[in-house]
Here is the input.
Amino acid sequence: MKQKKDVQQGTLALMLLKTLELLGPLHGYGIARRIEQISGALLSVNQGTLYPVLLRLENEGAISSDWGPSENNRRARFYRLTPAGQKLLNAEKRDWEQTAAIIARFFEVKAEDLA
Amino acid sequence: MRFLHRSFRRLLNFTTRRRTDERLREEMEWHIAALTEENILAGMTPRDAGRQARLKFGSVEAIRENYRAEEGLPSLETLVFDVRYAFRSLRKSPTFTIVALVTLALSIGANVVVFGVLNAVLLRPLPVSEPQNLYQLRHKQWMTGRLLTTSYPAFEDLQRRNTTFSGMAAINAYVHGDMDWRNAVMSASGDEVTSNYFDLLGVQPQAGQLFHPKDKLRPDAATYVVLSDQLWQNRFHGDRDIVGSAVEINKQPFTVIGITPAQFHGTEKFGFPDFWIPMKNEQWAEGADNLQGRRSALVTVIGRLKPGVTSQQATDELNTIEAQLAKEHPETDDGQPLRLIHPGLIGDEGDVIRGFLYSVTFLGLLVLVAACANLAMLFAARTADRSRELALRVALGSSRQRLMRQLLTEAMLVSLMGGAVGLVSAHLLLGVLNRSSSFAGTLTVSMDAQVYLAGVVLTMGSAFLFGMIPAWQASRNSPLQMMKGAPAGSRYLRRFALRDLLLGVQIAICTLLVMASFVAARGMARALHIPLGFQPRGAVLVNLDLSAEREKAVVQSALNIPGVTAAGSVNRTPMTGGLHGVPVFRPGTKDFKLNNSALAPYVFTMSPGYLSAAGTRLLSGRDVSWQDNTATPYMAIVNQTFAQKMWGETPAIGQHFLVSGHLTEVVGVAEDGKYHDIQETPQPVVYLPLLQGESDASVLVLRSKLAPNEIAAQLERSLNGGERNLPITVQRWDDTLATELFPARAATVALGILGLLAAALAVTGIFGMAAYNVSRRMKELGIRVALGARKIQVMSAAVGRPMMLLGVGSALGMLAGVFASRLLGQIVYRADPSDPAVVGCTILTMTLLGAAAIAIPARRALSVDTSKLMRQE
Here is the structure.
């Protein structure tokens, strides 16, 4: 079985933002589940570590939060993407794609290509 | 942007102490509950489900910690804790805190004052436009005190022929006079300047207008005067109506046309002019037109270089012109090479002043270094005393960095408080100095942003210097060692090595400074005892402007005042500036070129009786008499240097020389003296009788035991019927010479204060170390006494080390002092640190200081009560 990967620094925030973009306002538990679901159980993360990241993003103004009723009618904190967060996500996405593309080219290159 | 947003939120949370702990708790609880539910649905037992949920969620405490760190500003929070803790621990040892604060406040305050003066004198530019390309023309030969360099016609030639200056102006700063305004008389002194002066300096009036080259002066009309802001405020009460009204200067009418701005004080930083008059007006102010002669150097020349021209190019061109002038006017122009300096510090005195101030600044910084060494020692000792507490904190999980930060915070706190006190006291002290008139003439030293910045930098720097050492020391110790208390024997030596070094350095610096202050005191004493060639004590001066004929009546009526033992008048008394050499020739010279002159002595014009009134001894021959006038053969009295240079060993009486075109016979030889300044080498001097000389006598010298005001009253009575009803001011000669001693006095005061500070530091340093030693080793000393050690052995165990350090440090400091004689020479004229008196005094002082500092700890060590001590612990 493949080793589960630790989350790289900073990527958790990106996953979080993308999840919120995809699914709209969510509470912490929901976000954690979705991230686990999307990553296909390849990712090992203590779900509690989400909360400091959420607070940071909130302090940065990328997301906002409010109390609301959960599915089982308990009070839960819902997080939603702000326009600033949307902009941040777009920028980060571009960056990632660029980096990934560059790295991909390095992996694909063969010695004879450079002759 | 995001960063700002986030920092702002965190800062807000920090300041409002807002906590969202409750929110996090609720979120976490709900999250775990949801996970548990999920697990139960997946078929686990409730107990397993809860356990798995908590595992998946992760450590609640760690998350909470991270969350809190993100929420506020943890570094700022710990800083607040550290500061609070530091306050508490400093309050617990008030003696230590007060000693540290006073030490720092004194040394930082002293440095701020020194820097304030340095800033005002050297760093702040002249308040004129583009001061960096304003230059003053000087003779290549270095001259102290003298500002006047060129004759007026020579200035005009330089101005006309040069191509490197965009403008050149001339100044004669020797216009003293009585200014009459609506029957009120005040004495004022001003600058006589060429009409382009204000344009050259780029000065704009604050009221009225200034004069310009295009103004056409009618020679017969009342002419212009521009007043300084200071004179305007002090004497005319800032009355704007003064512009356009008439004043009289030395009985000549002038129209006030404008007032200069408050920050403009001419081009000299010491000695601000009260007014400016156009130069062509000299005949009205001084009653004679001296401007046309090429013989006397009457003006200071300043000029502004054209953009892109270097001062070297300008100097080369000026020297070419000078050489041409010497060829064209061989009788008057000597073609002396010129050089350019920046104006402001009395010509070449600038070099002396710069040297003085930089050296004093250096010594001041040394005091600060000594203070830092002292504090580092105190802090290190304190840290060692607190080692158990520190060890406990490390054992309880405090990190080393945290501990170091705590110790540094304490040091920073002490130094900030000390620095603040130092800045405030420096501010007050500078205020007092500025108000006292004796402080460097009219210069005001203000605390500007630069001075405050220097204070802050010094404070931070010193905190770092003395805070790092104990922090570093504490961080190296293992908690186990510290917990065990007193360190083992072998470690003992090493542990104290650093502190020993600090004390040694401190004592060496202090010795150097104590020595420097003795050198200065010695220099002052020497300056006071330099033979001046006249006796200012017991003589008074009266400024009078009278014709030669009336002079005789005045001198004779002064002699009739009971209590006046001698009276005479002279054109100017020695050491009042404005002297220049007058060429004299040997008899038979036909071609009066400067190259053919035999000597260029200073020439004084005096009445009979002046020499005895001044207290100048006539070594041989006779005094001049009232019968010597233009109808009788010309005669003169010369001084020894003149006689020796002209005729060597041959008796001078009866010899002849040519001065101002007259064949003159020497009738007397007077003793040598000082004529321009205290530091000059022996200068040749000729005294001419009043009626045969070219200038009028203007100072009456009286030798009398009467008080100046009594003499003034008597003189007024006997001069009754004079053409004006002016109050006569009579000054003690001593008082007028006070400025001559200013450099020596300034050096003595500056170094004296630094020396005192250093001595105080040495005492506290040695005392601190010895007392600490004794208190740490009380138990050991008790055991020694119990085992039968003699007093001398106990003493050497207790205070031997500080005593040894005192000896070594002092020796090193004195050695440094002897090697620093060049540095001290910048401050004290002819400094001689190896002078036996200086060395002796230094040794004595350091011994006394050491004895005083060690006495109390030594007594404590000797009076150790064994039985009581052994029962403790």
Chain B has four domains: 2-72, 131-343, 353-529+742-871, 539-736. Chain B touches chain A at residues 2-3, 5-6, 9-10, 20, 23-24, 26-28, 30-31, 34-35, 56-60, 63, 66-67, 69-71 (CB under 8 Å). The longest strand of chain B covers residues 165-181. The mean pLDDT of chain B is 76.
